[in-house]
Amino acid sequence: MSQATLDDDELFTEAASEMRDDVEASLDAAHESLPDAETVWEVDAENTLGVLNALRSALDVGDARDDLRDAKKWFTMGKKADAFEDADDLEAEIAEVEDIIADIEEASEQVGDLASTVPQLKSALEETDEDDA
Question: Where does the record place the region Disordered (predicted)?
């Protein structure tokens, strides 16, 4: 084997390791960008609309979607280049973060719908109470 081939193999191994590190770093960043469980669970508000608005704010995924995109980009490149000896753990973690982001965004949408419906419902109930009086 020539020296150039050995150098190419070493460079490829080094690049593959760096690519895996990039995927892992992006996944770590995505996890860090996700909302904190306590922030979502414990809400301080004086009424239903306040709770819903606080919850909607707590359900912000921040930069998690961009971080996940970076992880998927580097993972796809590494996988196509056959650079990873074992990519199953990365693939599983990417899928997990993707599912969590989708669940959070769906919950946020549902909370947003409720936040716009509750004031209308309150007004309708107040009108009914006035009609009964």
Answer: 111-133
* Residue-number span of the structural domain to which 13 is assigned: 3-132
CA–CA dist 7, 20 (Å, integer): 20
Tell me the one-letter amino acid at 15.
Answer: A
Phi-psi region of 62 (alpha: psi -120 to 50; beta: other; left: phi over 0): left
How many structural domains does the chain have?
1
CB-CB contact of 19 with 83 (8 Å): yes
Give the model's pLDDT for residue 13.
85
The predicted model scores a pTM of 0.84
> In order along the chain (133 residues), what is the average pLDDT of each group of 10 residues?
66 89 96 95 92 94 96 94 90 98 97 95 91 74
Q: Which position has the token pair 């301080």?
A: 44
Angle formed at CA 30 by CA 83 and CA 72, multiple of 5 degrees: 30
